[in-house]
Every structure is written in structure tokens, then in C-alpha cells.
Amino acid sequence: MTATQSNSLPLWVQDRDQVIAESGDTQWRYQTPPDYSRSKENLAKESTRNHLEGTLEAIVQNLVRTFEMEVSFKTEPQQWLSVVNEQFRVSTNGGVEYTAADLAAQGTYNLFMADSQHYKASQESFESSAKIFHTTFPQGFPWEVLEVYSGPPNVTFKWRHWGHFQGTYKDYAPTGETIEIIGLSIARVTDDLKIISLEHYFDNTLFLDKLTAGGKTNSQTKGSSCPFSSWFKKSHKS
């Protein structure tokens, strides 16, 4: 796909700020549209890729960022421009398929991570899960496309999520480490680039191991337990 002027493309594959600006009577989860100014600053400083406007990589990146914005901030799936609402399904690591309504009700963290030793999705709400990870990564948790392996209608791409672990994760102490998640996704899209289905593949366990590596915070630590014991137990996985 050759580079084109972004304004000739569908709105949902343009910059997400443009999508927000044209959202009209959208019902926002927190009453006002989201502000991505800090995220844009982080992306400018820390992105490993600089995709040219109009390239397939830039289009895929814009589409997924619009999708993430709509799931996080638009309460009504019928107002999501990035998906074919009645057909849309999403899954992680070959697991359960969820609808747009499921995402709107429970949030991406809960559906993409499910229940495990260090994260109990079934016990978290949309709001509580968002609060946990906003606390964990106070400077944000940016996302970028690394490579695109195939174009429409089945778009396969590699991506990177990262954040600076500077806030507590539940009752685990921050390590200050920059934590990365590298994953692969397959998006089936329509001719006009709306998402019909998404399949995500990434290592949840490694991510959570890093979030608990610093051990319990002082208020939670009992006896003479070493705060790094959890890291030693799990280091063979990293």
C-alpha cells in the first residue's frame, strides 16, 4: 500500500485525536473526551518506530489506537466507529471470544487477562481494573505497531506495549523498570477497514511476574520475608 493523504482515508484509521474531535454526541465514560497529550509526548520520546503517514503500518496503528480509545472511553458500543458491532469478536491466546458489549461492560484488562494468581479479573470492575493499571503506570502505558506481516482482509501484525513501573501494583512495590509486552495480533477487517474480529497472542504470565517482582510493600510484608523472593522463584520464566 502506498502512502496517501490521511484525510482521504476513513475517519477510524486517521489519528485518534481527529476521531475524538468528530465524535459529536458521543456518550463518554467519564463525561468528557479523553486527553491524549501526555501519551503523545511519551510516544514521541519512546516509540521505536516512526511509520510514515498513509503506510499500512500507520493505518493499522491508527485503527488499533482508535479501537482502544473507543473501548476505554465510549460507553455505547453502537458509537464505536472502528468495529462492525454486530459481528465483532475478540479473543486472547485462543481463549473465549467476547463481543463489543462484553468489552464495554468489563474492560480490556479483565477480558484479555482473565483470572490468575496475581490478577483476578472476575473480582474487578471496568473502573477498578483501569485504576489498578493507571496507578501501576502513572506515566501511561503506550502502544505501537512494530511490523505488519499481511494486509487486508486478514491483517497480521506485531506490537509493543510498554510502561514505567513507578507506582504500586496492588500491594506490590514498584521496581522502576520499563516493562514491555510484545505480542502478535490478527485483525479481520472489512473493505473499509472496520474490525470484524481480533485475535491477540501475548504472554500474560511474564507481564504479571514482572509486576510482582519487587515483592510486597512494607505495609504488607510480614516477618523477615525477602522482598525479592517472588523474583527468585519466577526468574526461570523471564
State the total count of DSSP E strands: 5
The class by helix and strand makeup works out as alpha+beta
Uncertain residue segments: 220-238
State the distance separating the first and last CA atoms: 37 Å
The helical percent reads 25-40%
Question: What is Rg?
Answer: 18 Å
- Shape descriptor reads globular
Helices, by number, come to: 8
SSE sequence, one letter per element: HHHEHHHEEEEHH
Overall pLDDT score: 89
Beta-strand residue fraction: 15-25%
Strands of the widest sheet, in order across it, are 1-5-4-3-2
Description of the molecule:
There is one protein chain. The chain has 238 residues and is α+β, with helices and mostly antiparallel strands. Helix content is 30%, strand content 18%. It has helices at residues 16-21, 37-46, 56-73, 100-106, 108-113, 126-136, 204-211, 229-234; strands spanning 89-92, 143-150, 154-164, 178-189, 195-201. It has a five-stranded mixed beta sheet with strand order 1-5-4-3-2. A hairpin with a 3-residue loop joins strand 2 (143-150) and strand 3 (154-164). The longest helix has 18 residues, at 56-73. The radius of gyration is 18 Å and the shape is globular.
